[in-house]
Amino acid sequence: MDLAAALNELPEVHAKALRLHRAGTDAAGIAEALGIDVEAVPPLLRVAEAKLASLLAAPDPPGNAVT
Hints:
By secondary structure, this protein is mostly helical. The protein has four helices and no strands. It is elongated.
């Protein structure tokens, strides 16, 4: 699975947090965009990164292989 597809599989809050973080948005900006406390951003990003890594490491389901 590629990065874009994996991001689309994540819950929206995780995907949005990761996209903002990868775009260089600081914790305060991410918090504002998501409507959460700034203190919640680091653990949210850790969970989102773990979920993303799991999706990227999983084998593609049969029939979805790119040739």
